[in-house]
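Researcher: Going back to the complex we discussed earlier. I've cleaned up the inputs and rechecked each line, so this should be the final set. Can you rerun the prediction on the complete assembly and write out the structure?
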Amino acid sequence: MANILVCTAQVPFASGGAERHAAGLLRELKARGHRVDLVQLPFKWYPREEILLSAAAWRLVDVTEADGTKVDLVIPMKFPSYLVRHPNKVVWLIHQFRQAYDRFGTQQSDFTASPEDTRWRELIAEADATGLGEARKVFTNARNTADRLMRFNGIEAEALYHPPPLAGRYRDDGPGPFALVVGRLDAWKRMDLAIEGAAAGGFPLVIAGSGPDEERLRKVAARTGANVDFRGSVSDEELLSLYAGCGVVLFTPADEDYGYIALEAFLSKKPVVTCTDSGGPLEFVIEGETGRVTPPDGGAVGAAAAELLASPAVAREMGERGLESIRGLTWEAVVSALLRAGGLA
Amino acid sequence: MTAEPLGFVSPLPPVRSGIADYSADLLGALRGEIGLVTYPPAEATRAFSGGHEAVLLQVGNDPLHLPSLEALRENARRVPSLLVLHDFSLHHLFAAGYLDRGCTEEYARELERSHGARGRTLGDRARRGERVPVWDLAPWGWPMSLGAVDDASAVIVHSRLVRGALLRERPRVPSFEIPHLVAPAPAHGRDEARIGLGLPRDRVIAATLGVVTPAKRIGKLLEGLALLSPGRRPFVVVGGAVAADDPLVQAVRERGLEADVRFTGYLSDHDFWRLARAADVAVNLRFPTVGETSGAVCRLAGCGLPVVVSDVGWFRELPDSFASKIPVGEGEAEAIARDLDALGSDDALRTVRSAAARAWGEARSPARIAQAYARAIRAVIEGRAPSLALCGVLARELGALGVGRAGSLGARDRVPDGRLLAGLGERGAGVLPAPLTPFVESTEG
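Model: Rerun complete. Updated structure for the full complex:
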């Protein structure tokens, strides 16, 4: 039995994939008999200095021992929690502070090219180099995240995939008549592509999730005349039912890290329509095999989804192939890899 | 009778060492700030039992100082102590003081004290009789000074560079940066000095002073000089002992520089100052360095000489207003030639730089440096230094975040660094001690 701390940054009142990810790891480590706890510090990114003062806070926390008990391993998951100091640190990175990296120069980043902002980005990169450079090993949640780490920081990492939070409970009720979109309603999730697609393809669309982009998305739906059912946040049961009953899942974000959505769709034997620039989902969705990969365009997304809804047999076949493709993706493999890297297995 | 507050351990003249000279220059002024008794290194133990409120030890990388460090180790924490570290690396001190005397065990123990488990690994090899290449491995990585740093209540260093290294290695030990002092030069007239030394009165003179070693790279200076046409060359004086068959002498001949270079041989103190007065420019191309401060460059700048130095180590901390910093490596000789040419041909430039150098030296007068020492000593005596450890830890962690270091994007803006420091200061009010900076550059405000 090892004493393990999972470290992550927390935005108070917000909860999403990252939180479920950490909770899943905690649960699985405990299930294997380890003594585990979650260490969280709040993270705030404005004004700029808060980003690095949050990082400094992690540097100042001593997690080598707790009440006289030696901590054998720390597993930080999110910027800036991997700045924590520990002689046995294995990072499982969900994502860096992306506004300073790949999102720089897009609408998803408020960093400008000013000399001051350049320095802020530089300090973030320096902090990343320190925090990640100290780790015995860096895993990422997906290959896309690892590629970004190499591209921007020159740091080598290995992708370590994990199952979605409700693994074991997904089911298939057969191909249904509607397309499904799941996730937080953020602009960079580009759910407007799915809405425009539903309008172009003439099929009903269900959106499960809430977020700051909702008002804009409702306007897009009204403008295009799409048949969209905004369900808001849904319970686990309702989510499982929606996956089980839909005909296709649309997942069209801009450069997603990983995204449970494609995996959840496959576990429900449903094909996925994604885009050529969607990032993480492309590690799973293979054009014509387990779903469709289209240009990031509402018309193209709509056409691909409409075809699958009109051909339930094809959709089912793709969904089953999707499920087959992720069979080796288990928590057992994840926990073994993390403990091995930390010299505990 | 009550003992004086301070025991001051250092070699003093007539012992011939840079630290002896330094202490002699400092003591006159320091005595005006705080009562003290001096002890030679061999009597350092007596300083600790002398009833002083604190003991201050001047230490450099020379076995001469070994008794000081042994006394410090024996008395660690019993009497408040300040270790003045003139060199970050003390390897040669321990190698000569222990290894050369067959005291392998003591050497190995010091390696472990300074470098923990990795030091023990090397120490064990030393115990088995292997030659341990600590110095060759990486002088910055194996300074062997950290055991002594742990023993001291506080450490005084002369540069930001070494203080940064200390903060990285031992952030919890309070450290103060007090610049090397600049002693006022004895009065010599320029012409009188040139006549006395037999130097040309009608040429610009560039002097390079101090012991001639390969690290001083006089050959590179000659290479740069040779790139200038004979009419534009300054007259170079190498003030330090050079044997007649030294390759440098041959290099002068081969490059046709006989009329432009003079080797003076060993210089007495009197002649050092005369040459400093006679010269127009000082050159010191030392490389590599282990963060040491050049006492000679300090003295020469204090005499009002613009300096040409390598762009490395402590030299980087010299202001651009009087120091030309030559990047080491490709294009170095050309850069030296360019700077010598500019300084040799532009009287106005020399005048401006000379004034800046003199002002820099005046800010480091023994009186001002002694005041800074007194502030640091009082902080230790009054028990205010330990809380500085908090600042040390914060400084190290800010360094880990990149604050104060150049980053990968080549940003020149430093506003964010300042905002981070301010943010921490604001939040730390009530927890962090008030800033304690014994030396501030400007006498204003």
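Model: Worth noting: Chain B touches chain A at residues 393-394, 397-398, 400-403, 405, 407-409, 411-417, 419-420, 423-424, 427 (CB under 8 Å).
Researcher: Good, that matches what I expected from the previous run.
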